[in-house]
Amino acid sequence: MPILWIILAIMFLPVLLALLFFQVAAFSFTKLGLSPLGAVLLLGLSLWGSIVNIPISRRRLLLDEENPRPVNNYIFYYPPRVKEQVISINLGGAVIPILFSLSLLDKVPLEQTFLAVAIVAIVAKSLAKIVPGVGIRLPAFIPPIVAAITALILAGNAAAPVAYIAGVWGTLIGADLLNIPKFARIGAAVISIGGAGVFDGIFLVGLIAALLA
Question: CA-CA distance, 109 to 106, in Å (whole number)?
Fold first, then answer.
């Protein structure tokens, strides 16, 4: 019987940890001024929205030429291989955090906030790595921590909302927007701004920022 309880505990431990994390995360967003219901909705929409990518542009990429096509016995034509690349914006990792951060602007000193955004963007740009065929990879914890430290130094009592805004905007600008010219090098069929590789950092911004509240 004790073995059965141990097995059940092991099976349900990931679920319990996930529920605990969700509860802590929802509580964290209430520290940024949301009601408990609003915090749950924002968190739920962010997690659900992480799988939703909204296309904003398409372009064709010219790939290496292969498989020569014979025109006659002496001439071969090498047709170019063309691949379409869709650039999209992630609902949970970009759209929702941006909209929420806009609602915080009336609570922060703008000059210090924009300076914090610039600092986080520089750090994110320096850490972002282009992974061919995959996308952009970014250490998840670094931008939120930089945003938190910068906000504490620059904003004082307004550190929490400044950290959130700087973390969201700085990460998106530094990791994604400033790397748009390099998107062709990735070669992936779909590139998501605020999506895989960057979403974790954006999501952690809210949790770390709330610790400052």
Answer: 8
